[in-house]
Amino acid sequence: MRKHLEPGSVFLVALLACGSQAHAAGTAHSSSVTASMAVPQTAARDAAAGKISAPSAENPVVVLETSKGAIKIELFPHDAPKTVENFLRYVDAGFYADTIFHRVIRGFVVQGGGFTPELDLKPTLPPVEIESRKGLENKRGSVSMARSLDRDSATSQFFINLSDNEQLNRGARSFGYTVFGRVIEGMEVVDRIAGVQTSRRGEMDDVPILPVLLESARRTEP
């Protein structure tokens, strides 16, 4: 798969070449992202600059337990409040348990959060409004929402940037992809995932030959 957006191509999509995703409000219960989670934008800017500064005590932190190891991510509710709230609803509902990283492109991204090991797409909540903005960049280690060509189509799927992917940022001719967090521990695990062998399965490219499981996602202390 090429690393650039092309007219008519489907790229980092929440639905790969199919338009029949079911929205099931019952698949997750609500969780509040309160004002206490709001933080200065410096943490997000540090992530955009590739720095690994200490997480803010006010920012929610989530641990992704994978079959390759644990990944700890800090979320940015001040910069992407709707996206963080949406992500935490899935986390608190246990939605991500036993899903897979279904797209792995070395030097680019690893993407997961929507498919079972059998490549069945899980039903999701309604999509969330895009919150990409200039200054929040898809740098190495940043965590962003996957979506279809519709800018407001992100649901449960997310990706972790393996490189500085400027073509995914918001610009004059592109809405880009919403950055809502950063990896603060376990980037070596992300790189381990990026090193697996992939192949084409059905209509999907870049699928790991041996499934990389996202065993669970849970909130934790910074």
Number of strands: 10
Give the CA-CA distance, first to last residue: 35 Å
Structural class: alpha+beta
- Supply the number of structural domains: 1
How helical, in percent, are the residues? Answer: 10-25%
- Biggest sheet: strand arrangement: 1-2-7-5-6-4-3-10
Strand content: 25-35%
Shape descriptor reads globular
- CATH superfamily assignment? Cyclophilin-like
Mean pLDDT level: 82
The CATH architecture comes to Beta Barrel
SSE order, as H and E?
A: HEEHEEEEEHEEE
Description:
- There is one protein chain.
- This protein is 13% helix and 25% strand.
- It is an alpha+beta fold and 222 residues long.
- It has one domain (41-50, 58-220): Beta Barrel (Cyclophilin), CATH 2.40.100.
- The strands form two sheets. Strands 1-2-7-5-6-4-3-10 form an eight-stranded antiparallel barrel.
- It is globular and about 35 Å long.
- Residues 1-11 and 13-43 have low confidence and may be disordered.
Task: Spell out the key features of this protein.
single chain; 222 residues; alpha+beta; eight-stranded antiparallel β-barrel; globular
